Amino acid sequence: MNAVPPTVPARVRTRLRAAVRRPARLTPEETRDRALVLRLLSLALQYPDAELAAARPTVLAAVRALPPSPAATELAAFTTWFAEQDPQTLERHYVETFDLRRRSSLYLTYYLHGDTRRRGMALLTLARRYQAAGWDTSGGELPDHLPVVLEFAALAGTGAGEAPLRQHRRGLDLIHRALESAGSPYRHVLAALLALLPPPSRADEEAVTKLAAEGPPNEDVGLDPYGTYGHGEFAPPDTFVPPLPAPPASRPEGAR
C-alpha cells in the first residue's frame, strides 16, 4: 500500500491511516477464529519442549479445522513439518533459529529500539498495557517476547490486543525475511501472522530494508550494528547472539 499523498490535509491523512490500520468489523465467529489462529501462532513459536511435542497431533488437528484463509494455509504448511520431525531436531532448529541469530530474535522491542535505554521503557509500557487489561504478566518471559504478545492479542481482541503487533510490524517483517533467507519452516508462522495484519506502507518497506542492512539502534559507539560476541570480536555472518536484556532498572516487576 502506498503512503497517503502529502497533498491530503494532515487531519484527513491521520484519519485515513487509522482506517487502513483498523481491522474490519468481525462477526462473533470470525472473532473466535481469529483468536484461535493467534493462539496457535503463539504456541507454534514457543520452545518445542516435551509437552509441546506430545501435543502435536492436537495442534495439527486444530489447524486443519480452521476455516480457509491465507493464515490457515501457512499454518498448515508449518504444522505438517512440525509434526514430522523428531523432538531433538525441533529443539535444535528452534535454538539455532531464534536464540543464536539476532535477525530472527523473537523479542520485538529489540528491532525498534535496539540495545538502548528506550528498550527498557518500551518493555515497561508493554507490561503496563497487559496489567491494565487485567492480564497477569508474571510468567517469567519478557513482555515483548512474540509468543506472549500473540497470546495477549488473542485474549484482548483486534483493537488494543493487536496494537502491539501493528506497532512492531517492521520487526515482524524483518524476522520473516530472515526466516525466508534461512529456509526455516518457521517462515510460514510469520507469514501467517503478517497475513492478519494490514499491508505494509512504502515507508514500512523502506524502513525494513534499512533495518536489515544497518541493524537497530545501539548506544555502544563503534560496535557492529548487531553487537559483538565473545571478548569483543565481531560476529561472523548469520551467527548472531540473542539481544541483550533490557536494563534491570527498567524491567517490569516479575520479568527476567
From TrEMBL:
<dbReference type="InterPro" id="IPR036411">
    <property type="entry name" value="TorD-like_sf"/>
</dbReference>
<dbReference type="InterPro" id="IPR020945">
    <property type="entry name" value="DMSO/NO3_reduct_chaperone"/>
</dbReference>
<protein>
    <submittedName>
        <fullName>Nitrate reductase</fullName>
    </submittedName>
</protein>
<dbReference type="GO" id="GO:0051082">
    <property type="term" value="F:unfolded protein binding"/>
</dbReference>
<keyword id="KW-0534">Nitrate assimilation</keyword>
<dbReference type="InterPro" id="IPR003765">
    <property type="entry name" value="NO3_reductase_chaperone_NarJ"/>
</dbReference>
<dbReference type="GO" id="GO:0016530">
    <property type="term" value="F:metallochaperone activity"/>
</dbReference>
<dbReference type="Pfam" id="PF02613">
    <property type="entry name" value="Nitrate_red_del"/>
</dbReference>
<feature type="region of interest" description="Disordered">
    <location>
        <begin position="206"/>
        <end position="256"/>
    </location>
</feature>
<dbReference type="GO" id="GO:0042128">
    <property type="term" value="P:nitrate assimilation"/>
</dbReference>
<dbReference type="GO" id="GO:0051131">
    <property type="term" value="P:chaperone-mediated protein complex assembly"/>
</dbReference>
<feature type="compositionally biased region" description="Pro residues">
    <location>
        <begin position="239"/>
        <end position="250"/>
    </location>
</feature>
